[in-house]
Design goal:
Blueprint: H1 2-14, H2 21-32, H3 37-45, H4 53-88, H5 104-118, E1 122-123, E2 129-131, H6 132-135, E3 155-157, E4 167-169, H7 174-183, E5 188-197, E6 209-219, H8 224-239, E7 245-252, E8 255-264, E9 281-290, H9 292-297, E10 306-313, H10 314-322, H11 329-332, H12 335-338
Parallel strand pairs: 1-5
Antiparallel strand pairs: 2-4, 3-4, 5-6, 6-10, 7-8, 8-9, 9-10
Helix pairs in contact: 1-4, 2-4, 3-4, 5-10
The protein binds 3,4-dihydroxyphenylalanine.
Organism: Marseilla massiliensis
Subunit structure: Tetramer of two alpha and two beta subunits.
Protein name: Phenylalanine--tRNA ligase alpha subunit
């Protein structure tokens, strides 16, 4: 009885066929697994009369060996077929890989870096988790000066005896300017792109983090005229050759004099529209001549050197270029929003 069963299985196993890895695995399970046909023969083996045990044992082994070889050779065949197909089928439809897009802030940041690079500025980088010394103190913010309130941020570690040792999330990339001045003697010509943080409620118009690019130029005889011409060139490169600029007096602790720069509204060409609130102008950055105190605090002789600095928000410029109405869109990573920038890549 058992011998007939083995013979039948042997025939079956010799003729096995399968072409996909899944089919082959199913065969392995059917014949060779613990609950498979061959294991169940082993169970029956216990009831075989002693004088037949040897013959049956040999047959079962032959069956097991044959099944193993057949399944292995099916597996090899399947692998070589797959390899061949991969090499040869040049007509196969490509995998549907969708390219992503660059983030709009990256597009605009790169454009701005490009413009300043062409004017000889190099890139400088620094930490986002910073000490008070570089964010505020060396930028001429006195320890108890209310100007610090304009840039309330997040405190990682506070030191009650010495505010300059507080560890905070930087509220502007001016901290990178401080680090560059500490380690480099003029001429200095750098831009500092990076993420900055503010303690602000998140709304369509404000966020607890955003991106800045600040610039710093220090050399002998640098004047306000140099600043104005560089910013005019920048505005025209970014918003078109007809762009006009105007500088309004302002206040920053680290520059004197300080100014806010507006560009003529690129939507209405300066005639006045809803976008520029009918003024013809839109604000794009802050700037000024570096306060001599800042130079001295950072180890640069203010009797020999002077310089200018400016700082802009990348979100603000991106909003002006692409009229993004809600600041939160930049950090939500909704692909429908991001794909709107396919063409700008
Ligand atoms: N740090 C300023 C801010 O975050 C922006 C700024 C204004 C930077 C004038 C400058 C500058 O370097 O000269 O509001």
């Amino acid at each position: 009885m058992i011998l007939d069963k083995i013979e039948k299985l042997l025939e079956e196993v010799k003729g096995l066929n399968a072409s996909t890895p899944e089919e082959i695995e199913a065969l392995r399970l059917k014949y060779l697994s613990k609950k498979g046909e061959i294991s169940s023969l082993m169970a029956d083996f216990r009831n075989v009369p002693a004088e037949q045990k040897k013959e049956v044992g040999i047959k079962i082994n032959e069956l097991k060996q044959t099944a193993l070889e057949r399944i292995n050779s099916l597996r090899e065949q399947c692998e070589t077929n797959e390899a061949k197909n991969d090499d040869l089928d040049l007509t196969r439809t490509p995998y549907p890989i969708k390219f992503g897009t660059r983030h709009p802030l990256t597009i605009v940041k790169n454009e701005i870096i490009d413009i300043f690079s062409r004017m000889g500025f190099t890139l400088a980088d620094g930490p986002e988790v910073e000490d008070d010394l570089h964010v505020f103190t060396k930028m001429n913010f006195a320890a108890d000066h209310p100007a610090r309130d304009m840039q309330d941020t997040f405190f990682v570690e506070t030191n009650p005896n010495d505010v300059t040792k507080n560890i905070i999330l930087r509220s502007h990339t001016s901290s990178v300017q401080a680090r560059v001045m500490e380690t480099t003697q003029p001429p200095i010509r750098v831009i500092c792109p990076g993420r900055v943080y503010r303690n602000e409620a998140i709304t369509a118009r404000a966020h607890c983090f955003f991106h800045q690019i600040e610039g710093l130029y220090i050399d002998k005889n640098v004047s306000f005229t140099d600043l104005k011409q560089v910013l005019l060139t920048f505005a025209r490169e970014l918003f078109g050759p007809d762009t006009k600029i105007r500088l309004r007096p302002s206040y920053f602790p680290f520059t004197e004099p300080s100014a806010e720069m507006d560009i003529s509204c690129h939507i209405c060409g300066g005639k006045g529209c809803g976008f520029c609130k009918h003024t013809g102008w839109v604000e794009i950055l802050g700037c000024g001549m570096v306060d001599p105190n800042v130079l001295e605090l950072c180890g640069i002789d203010s009797k020999i050197y002077s310089g200018y600095a400016f700082g802009l928000g990348v979100e603000r410029i991106t909003n002006l270029k692409y009229q993004v109405s809600d600041l939160r869109l930049f950090s939500e990573n909704d692909v429908r929003f991001l794909h709107e920038f396919d063409a700008a890549n």
